[in-house]
């Protein structure tokens, strides 16, 4: 298992530097410095479901370079971002400092989050798009979430739908299910030079490993961890172009299927609370 983690960390270390470029490529992070009210597309999409988080103590797991983390802070939360990539944490700290946002960032594997953060003290545990697929066990992740939450605290996930990860986007012209929908012991290996946003150069740490988790498995893991499900919404869009040539871009950075509109969910928002 360690070899998979090491390969993924090397990949995300490299991505973090490219995504945080200040030349307009990657995440175009200069926007957050220029506009102190700017929210990331991911967080802005879910503002109606997040509601008022002013004054809450929040942790953003697998925060990458911190654009969503900073956005939560701009909505009034006191936020800690956590990521296993030292490069991502360094870039996130630099961006928050340059943008003038008061956010803490901690380097840690997500499974060790309850060991490096104060257990049972967070009003909100937040996870954004593209996080769960890098974890071999969704049940273990859910137990960590439950440990972090204070009584009455809330889990909030916006994620790509697991059906998306089961599709082989390399086959053009239609939607082709080729990969496991359910969690498997062994990961899927990938070897890709491209990132999911435009970057200055191809990746050199190209090898990664990922795991899918069915929606039922995710819901069950959350409930088995002692949390009460309070919301589950499936969406017909997601914030990246999963299937080039088969999608249309909507205002706000969301992408939806074009010719095949409505045939499958593309993302979901899940909420749960820890009984108080």
TrEMBL record:
The Swiss-Prot or TrEMBL record annotates one GO molecular function as:
methyltransferase activity
Q: Which Gene3D superfamilies match?
A: Vaccinia Virus protein VP39
Q: Which Pfam families match?
A: Methyltransf_12 (PF08242)
In Gene Ontology terms, what is a biological process of this protein? methylation
InterPro entries recorded: Methyltransf_12, SAM-dependent_MTases_sf
Name under which the protein is recorded: SAM-dependent methyltransferase
Please list the residue ranges annotated as the Methyltransferase type domain: 60-155
Keyword annotations for this protein, in alphabetical order, are: Methyltransferase, Transferase
Question: Which species is listed as the source?
Answer: Microbacterium thalassium
Keyword Methyltransferase in record: yes
The organism's place on the tree of life at top rank: Bacteria
